Each structure stands twice: as structure tokens, then as C-alpha cells.
Amino acid sequence: MPFAAGGNTDVKTRLVAQQLSAILGQPVVVDNKPGASGNIGTEMLARAAPDGYTIGMGSFGPLAVNPWIYPKLNFAPESLVPIILLEKSPLVLSTPASKPYKTVADIVTAAKKAPGSLNIANAGPGGAHHLSAELFESTAGIDMVGIPFKGGGPAATALLAGQVDLMFEQTGAALQSIKAGKIRPIAVTSAKRLSTLPDTPSFAELGYPQVTVSNWMGYVAPKGTPPAIVARLHEAFAKAIERPEVRDIIQSQNNEFGGGTREDFARFIASESERWSKLIKERNISIE
């Protein structure tokens, strides 16, 4: 597990591990190896023995983004074999309730009138929050000032306090503050409106279909794991994530359920890598 214990992804992975253990009839231990935006744990997984006993989480950052923004990585996404996609998590662009912006058009107008006058928080360089903002700016032809924070929590706190103008945030994390009227949702990055935010348009319906983004996660194994073992793991994971305990937590957070075949997940990773590599090069994004 390439992220810290206690976070949202960790909680879901532990829930999946419980179901997987029951299906396989043997213990499944979650070992957290956080650091460097998921690179440390992902490298350890890529270097593990390909015997089917070490599997891990593969997600947006390590598999589709980090290879393009870190000058040196000690693993390649190709050194991992996709097993199954767990979920896709859309984001919502929000503003403090005290700010005047109510629509995407308001933001674009203000940003074009005074380039660099608006700022937008993110949870750190290279994350879905950050790249969604870069993609929106590129697509809309505007220039905002990115304000990086050390994680989504501090960034969301700054948004609530009105210290920043805007932020892309995962919808599940933002929903409570939206319902409390502390922040105002502007648009969501899902292809269509979300059932929990029915009055908030998608970027796609506003004429920005390129700004359809999800922060996704799934499960992978080291390259060289025998095909028969990968097939057995896929079968077990497919059953595990279909269980109500897992489906319920995914859907309660406005996330899109994954599933599908190993080949589906492999194609999705490849398309995401190609997409984000183009934006990263265009916007000259890097982490030294």
C-alpha cells in the first residue's frame, strides 16, 4: 500500500483485503509504505517476487503521472501487471461561500480580465487536484496562480477559511462543507451531473468535455507473475469488490465503480498515461 494508514484509500484497501481473505481462505495483510507521492511503495511492489503473494494498489499518480513529472523514478509502470480497477473518483471545483463566483463563466471572465488575479489551491504538485486545475486553465485559456499545500486537508482548510479563491477536491471529501453552505460547488469533473449534487453542472455540459477527470485506483502485481495466478487474483478481486460492503463505500462517496477485465484496466492506464503526459509537457510541470 503506497499511501499512509488511515487515509481514504487505505480504508478501502483494508476493506477489500478483508473480503479477499475470506474468498482466498488465507490472510491478506496490508503493509503501508508511504512516501514520494506513492513512488516508494510502488517501487517496492515492482521489485517484489512475482509469485502472487505480493500485490498492491496502483493509482493515478504512480502509474499515469509520476513517470512524467519526476526526473528519476526507480520503477516503470510497465513493471507492474494490472489486475482490476476499483474505482474512479470525480472532483468538484468549489469556491468559498464568501467569494462572488457562481459559475464557470464567472471564473473565466474574471481570469481573462485580470490574468493571475485568481488563485487555486491544490494538495501538492502532480496530484489530481493540481492537474485538474492545469487542465481547466489550458482548456479555458486562462491563467491562475496555483497554491500548493501539503495534502488535501490543509488545502481544504484554506478554502473553508476563504484564504484561496478556488479548489478542485474529490466530491466525497467536499460534500459535507458544500451541504453546510461553507463552500459553493461550481462544476464537477464527472461526465454527467452527480446524484448528490444535482444542481451542479459537469464541465462537459458547459462546453469543456476535456475537463472530465477522475482520481482512480486499482490493484496490480509485479511483472512476471504467472498468468494463471494473475487470472486467479482477478477472479478473487472481482468478487471482493462486488460485495455490498465495498460497493456501498464507493457509491457513498460519489465514486464510479470499477471492475471489468484485466485488459480493460491495462488500456485505461495506457490512455491516462498518454493524456497526462501531453498536459505535463504542455504546461512544463515537473518536480525537482
Report how far apart the termini are: 24 Å
CATH architecture of the largest domain: 3-Layer(aba) Sandwich
Task: Write down the secondary-structure element order.
Answer: HHEHEHEHEHEHEEHHEH
The main pleated sheet reads as:
8 strands, mixed
Please tell me what the overall shape is. Answer: globular
What is the name of the CATH class of the largest domain?
Alpha Beta
Radius of gyration: 19 Å
Helix content: 40-55%
Helix tally equals: 10
Query: What is the strand tally?
Result: 8
Number of domains: 2
What's the CATH topology label of the largest domain? Answer: D-Maltodextrin-Binding Protein, domain 2
Which consecutive residue ranges, at least 5 long each, have pLDDT under 50?
A: none
Q: Write the CATH homologous superfamily of the largest domain.
A: Bordetella uptake gene, domain 1
Q: Which percent band covers the strand fraction?
A: 15-25%
Averaged pLDDT, please?
A: 92
Give the helix/strand class. alpha+beta
Brief overview:
The protein has 288 residues and is of the alpha+beta class.
Describe the structure in your own words.
The chain is of the alpha+beta class and 288 residues long. It has two domains: 8-88 and 215-283, Bordetella uptake gene, domain 1 (D-Maltodextrin-Binding Protein, domain 2, 3-Layer(aba) Sandwich), CATH 3.40.190; 89-206, D-Maltodextrin-Binding Protein, domain 2. Helix content is 43%, strand content 18%. The chain contains ten helices and eight strands. Strands 1, 2, 3, 4, 5, 6, 7 and 8 form an eight-stranded mixed β-sheet that branches. β3 (119-122), α5 and β4 (145-148) form a beta-alpha-beta unit. α1 crosses α8 (227-242), α3 packs parallel to α10 (262-283) and α5 (128-140) packs across α10 (262-283). It is globular and about 60 Å long. The chain starts with 7 loop residues before the first helix and ends in a 5-residue tail after the last helix. The mean pLDDT is 92.
